[in-house]
Amino acid sequence: MYTLSYQPPYDWPWILSFLQGRAVEGVEIVTENRYQRSFALGKHAGLVTLEPDEKKLCLNVTLSDGLLPVAETVLQRVKNLLDLDKDPQQVLDSLGALASARPGLRLPGCMDPFEQAIRAILGQLVSVAMAAKLTGKVAKTYGKKLEDNDGWYLFPAASTLANCDIQQLKSLGMSLKRAEAIVHIAGEVVKGQFPLQLPDDLEQGIKNPDSIAGYRALDRQLFCPAWLAGQRCFPAG
């Protein structure tokens, strides 16, 4: 088991509730005091289990054997997901009363930038619950089953979604535009044309997905490369 420290306060009930409301069946399970998910990094795959210890001001992280060779990278992804490196005092100094009204609030990130891009597309103009349901269908249809872990699926790789049948993808319950956008983005990721890390020019980086069908202006901001890289940004306007 690994431990990651953080600076208090940290509103664990809120962030776990946030993740629970968006949990993808087959990929994530969230309870009031634990977050667990399947995760793959290259050829390495397994389960990640997160349990906060508020008395010791740390997060206990358990990785299954398949992820141990890439533990350092996985731990950084966990920090990105939970905004663990944030200094609450710095937030308070910057936001004043807005921050003092909700002490310990953090801005959730993600562990897998490509997965987050797909979830952003599937979340267009539908409820949070419907977006999670659609994402679960995609994961179970195109994702690989996690070996030796019944009921768990790995989120589909970009190479898999780039080559899937658009009509079959649409039949899972999404619009044709969304299906086309998913296949197109997956193809761009495979070709190295879709940004999955922080660019030198953040403003230009947010604008880059303009030509991708089905990708709205708000999605570009919610999925901005700065956010994916573990940085935090707010939508404009």
UniProtKB/TrEMBL annotation:
<dbReference type="GO" id="GO:0008725">
    <property type="term" value="F:DNA-3-methyladenine glycosylase activity"/>
</dbReference>
<keyword id="KW-0378">Hydrolase</keyword>
<dbReference type="GO" id="GO:0032993">
    <property type="term" value="C:protein-DNA complex"/>
</dbReference>
<dbReference type="GO" id="GO:0005737">
    <property type="term" value="C:cytoplasm"/>
</dbReference>
<dbReference type="GO" id="GO:0006307">
    <property type="term" value="P:DNA alkylation repair"/>
</dbReference>
<dbReference type="GO" id="GO:0043916">
    <property type="term" value="F:DNA-7-methylguanine glycosylase activity"/>
</dbReference>
<dbReference type="GO" id="GO:0032131">
    <property type="term" value="F:alkylated DNA binding"/>
</dbReference>
<keyword id="KW-0326">Glycosidase</keyword>
<dbReference type="InterPro" id="IPR011257">
    <property type="entry name" value="DNA_glycosylase"/>
</dbReference>
<protein>
    <submittedName>
        <fullName>DNA-3-methyladenine glycosylase 2</fullName>
        <ecNumber>3.2.2.21</ecNumber>
    </submittedName>
</protein>
<dbReference type="Pfam" id="PF06029">
    <property type="entry name" value="AlkA_N"/>
</dbReference>
<dbReference type="GO" id="GO:0006285">
    <property type="term" value="P:base-excision repair, AP site formation"/>
</dbReference>
<keyword id="KW-0227">DNA damage</keyword>
<dbReference type="InterPro" id="IPR037046">
    <property type="entry name" value="AlkA_N_sf"/>
</dbReference>
<dbReference type="InterPro" id="IPR010316">
    <property type="entry name" value="AlkA_N"/>
</dbReference>
<feature type="domain" description="DNA-3-methyladenine glycosylase AlkA N-terminal">
    <location>
        <begin position="1"/>
        <end position="112"/>
    </location>
</feature>
<keyword id="KW-0234">DNA repair</keyword>
<dbReference type="InterPro" id="IPR051912">
    <property type="entry name" value="Alkylbase_DNA_Glycosylase/TA"/>
</dbReference>
